[in-house]
């Protein structure tokens, strides 16, 4: 039986969320500690735990069919690789930063400077048409230390919370682009694996929709129902059920997670009471 081969990050910031999204899709991985290739339960899939930076080449070579990887790695090493799905986790920026006490007004301030980074191609692409000269100092980790030890004048690295920049007396100078985890596809994927990819994408989309939505139940007096319903950005139209108490109804609907706090005060003002907000496990539309 055909299995789809997926690469996920062996360790690092994408690993946990990558395993979790597969789990939420009903796919559990049978692996022990340090086991780099594993089978799964409930889906014909083989998982390979690989180093982030190696994954684009494994995709290109067709050693794996798909991978969960950061867009930042694809920009650096895999511009030719197709993205099937954005996964809405591991969001970060890829930025240029300079020492806190250095005056920075525009990209021209980097002219003639040394830039330390693990992302040399990304820096080249970004600065290519900006008419400045610079020297890349390529290092594979702890990039933020470079200005403090006289190795470089600026750095390019990923910024998530900003804490590493802050703790190393650096400030963000330019946000080059934003990145998140994506599902990337090998150019050599075969037809059988493509079919499995479609099934996996269907599950992933249901999980992502559910993560972004809340199920809301509330009670409202019947004469206020129209006003309450107008405030609800629902899926299609809310479900209205009569309560045992005469003149009252229960309203059930699904709303985008980020909209809830915008409407809660208005709902209360409009007469809604007993508002319950529940998580949704999967959403198949
Ligand atoms: C990354 C990156 C930065 C840091 C930024 O390193 O290289 O150093 O995270 O995150 P922050 O803005 O939340 O502080 P990571 O911890 O992933 O390890 P790495 O050095 O192996 O890349």
Bound molecules: 1-O-pyrophosphono-5-O-phosphono-alpha-D-ribofuranose
* Number of alpha- plus pi-helical segments: 8
Order of helices and strands: EHEEEHEHEEEHEEHEEHEHEEHE
Low-confidence stretches: none
What sort of overall outline do the alpha carbons produce when their principal axes are compared? flat
pLDDT averaged over residues = 94
Task: Summarize the structure in short.
This protein has helices at residues 15-24, 55-61, 71-77, 120-127, 163-167, 191-211, 225-231, 260-269, and strands at residues 4-9, 28-30, 37-41, 45-50, 66-70, 82-86, 92-99, 113-117, 134-138, 154-159, 170-179, 181-185, 213-221, 239-242, 248-256, 273-279. The chain is of the alpha+beta class and 285 residues long.
Give structural attributes.
alpha+beta; 8 helices; 285 residues; 34% strand; flat; single chain; binds 1-O-pyrophosphono-5-O-phosphono-alpha-D-ribofuranose; 7-stranded mixed β-sheet; 5-stranded mixed β-sheet
Task: Describe this structure as you would to a colleague.
The protein has 285 residues and is of the alpha+beta class. It has eight helices and 16 strands. A seven-stranded mixed beta sheet has the order 2-3-4-1-5-12-6, sandwiched between helices. A five-stranded mixed beta sheet has the order 9-8-10-7-11. Helix 4 links the parallel strand 8 and strand 9. It is flat, with a radius of gyration of 24 Å. The model has no long low-confidence stretch (mean pLDDT 94). The structure holds 1-O-pyrophosphono-5-O-phosphono-alpha-D-ribofuranose (PRP). The site of 1-O-pyrophosphono-5-O-phosphono-alpha-D-ribofuranose (PRP) has 13 residues, from strand 10 and helix 5.
